[in-house]
Amino acid sequence: MITRSSALLQRPETPGADVTPLTLQSAWQNQLSRAIRDPRELCRRLGLDDTWLPGAEGGHALFEVRVPEAFLARMRPGDPHDPLLRQVLPLSAEGESVPGYVADPLEEAAHTPGPGLIHKYAGRVLLIASPACAVNCRYCFRRHFPYDANSPSRAQWEGSLDTLRSDPSIREAILSGGDPLAASDRQLAWLVERLEAIPHLERLRLHTRLPVVIPDRVDDVLLDWLGNTRLQKVMVLHINHAQEIDQAVVEACARLKAAGVTLLNQ
Ligand code: SF4
Question: Ligand 1 in contact with 136 (CB < 6 A)?
Answer without folding.
Answer: yes
